[in-house]
């Protein structure tokens, strides 16, 4: 009799487990090491802001080790791979993630705009499949190359209105409630656009090598001068506490040994003034050296 009771309870357990498996979610890719809590912070909303100014010109700024625009392309690929890893570790019903790419101003070349529009993805349980994930991965591995090739071939570098993007668009384009919002800025660290040149005392909307020389921030006393005379960027908005920013590609003028630290000081003070939740600012380096840093930023914060 005791054996029959044990067998009966064993059958109940097996049936119950089978029902739980049928009712449960499936992983997009089996990942037994990944434990994902279903919280809004697990929903990624990743935006790229590309600076397509003459900084990407291989003719004006050649680099025999690896052209700067090719570094951008590889950085974008690293971010997209992190996005892919994030998605493949989630249950289907938990997926609610986005990735998109922006410029400011938008290029006049309509082909570039068409490609950038094709890189906007919004995923949820209704539209996500393995083939969609493969398509995103392939698109971000190949299409950015086409954007840079077209921009370089056009040879019409209109500058990048980075300050105006933060002023007028970052809240609308890059920040959503119930998401972990991440903005990846690809820039050499200098900001200038002819239509956005504002100066308030020693605060500006721009930073260029010539300006740095003009105000004599190119010597060993640069930091104390910034602090004492309050040099920096004009805050574009008041509260970006729901945004994380990863700046990649800082490329200082090598004629000034203090320029790299000065550029990072300008950007970090700017982000602090705008209450950016979390940020990192990285100098241009070979993509193989930055790949781990990029993926850790996306996946581990």
Q: CATH topology, what is it called? A: Rossmann fold
Number of helices: 10
The best one-word shape is globular
* Percentage of residues in DSSP E strands: 5-15%
Q: Summarize the helix and strand pattern as letters.
A: HEHEHEHHHEEEHHEEHEH
Give the overall average pLDDT.
Answer: 88
Determine the structural class based on helices, strands and strand pairing. Answer: alpha/beta
Q: Strand order, biggest sheet?
A: 3-2-1-4-8-9
The Cα radius of gyration reads: 24 Å
List how many beta strands DSSP finds: 9
> CATH class, anyone?
Alpha Beta
Q: Note the gap between the termini.
A: 57 Å
Number of domains: 1
Write the CATH architecture name.
Answer: 3-Layer(aba) Sandwich
Protein name: VWFA domain-containing protein
Organism: Olleya sediminilitoris
What's the arrangement of secondary structure elements?
Blueprint: H1 2-23, E1 44-50, H2 68-88, E2 96-103, H3 110-118, E3 121-124, H4 130-154, H5 162-168, H6 170-174, E4 180-186, E5 199-200, E6 203-204, H7 209-214, H8 222-229, E7 232-233, E8 244-250, H9 259-273, E9 278-283, H10 287-299
Parallel strand pairs: 1-2, 1-4, 4-8, 6-7, 8-9
Antiparallel strand pairs: 2-3, 5-6
Helix pairs in contact: 2-4, 2-10, 3-4
Report on the structure:
- With 301 residues, this protein is of the alpha/beta class.
- The protein has a 6-stranded mixed beta sheet with strand order 3-2-1-4-8-9, sandwiched between helices.
- The chain has one domain (42-299): 3-Layer(aba) Sandwich (Rossmann fold).
- The chain is built from 10 helices and 9 strands.
- Mean pLDDT is 88; it is low at 2-38.
- This is VWFA domain-containing protein.
């Amino acid at each position: 009799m005791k054996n029959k009771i044990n067998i009966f309870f064993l059958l109940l357990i097996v049936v119950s487990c089978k029902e739980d498996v049928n009712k449960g979610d499936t992983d997009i890719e089996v990942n037994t090491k990944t434990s994902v809590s279903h919280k809004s912070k697990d929903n990624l909303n990743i935006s790229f802001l590309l600076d397509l100014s003459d900084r990407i010109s291989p003719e004006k700024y050649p680099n025999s080790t690896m052209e700067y625009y090719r570094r951008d392309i590889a950085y974008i690929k690293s971010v997209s791979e992190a996005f892919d890893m994030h998605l493949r570790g989630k249950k289907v019903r938990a997926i609610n993630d986005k990735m998109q790419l922006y410029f400011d101003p938008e290029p006049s070349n309509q082909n570039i705009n068409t490609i950038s529009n094709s890189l906007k993805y919004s995923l949820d349980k209704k539209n996500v499949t393995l083939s969609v994930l493969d398509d995103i991965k392939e698109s971000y591995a190949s299409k950015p190359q086409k954007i840079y090739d077209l921009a370089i071939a056009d040879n019409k570098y209109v500058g990048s209105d980075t300050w105006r993007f933060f002023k007028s668009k970052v809240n609308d384009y890059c920040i959503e409630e119930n998401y972990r919002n991440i903005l990846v800025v690809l820039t050499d660290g200098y900001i200038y656009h002819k239509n956005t040149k504002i100066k308030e005392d020693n605060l500006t909307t721009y930073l260029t090598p010539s300006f740095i020389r003009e105000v004599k921030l190119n010597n060993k006393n640069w930091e104390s001068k910034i602090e004492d005379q309050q040099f920096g960027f004009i805050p574009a908005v008041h509260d970006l506490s729901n945004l994380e920013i990863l700046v990649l590609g800082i490329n200082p003028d090598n004629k000034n040994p203090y320029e790299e630290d000065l550029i990072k000081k300008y950007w970090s003070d700017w982000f602090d003034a705008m209450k950016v939740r979390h940020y990192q600012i990285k100098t241009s380096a070979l993509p193989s050296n930055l790949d781990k840093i990029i993926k850790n930023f996306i996946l581990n914060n």
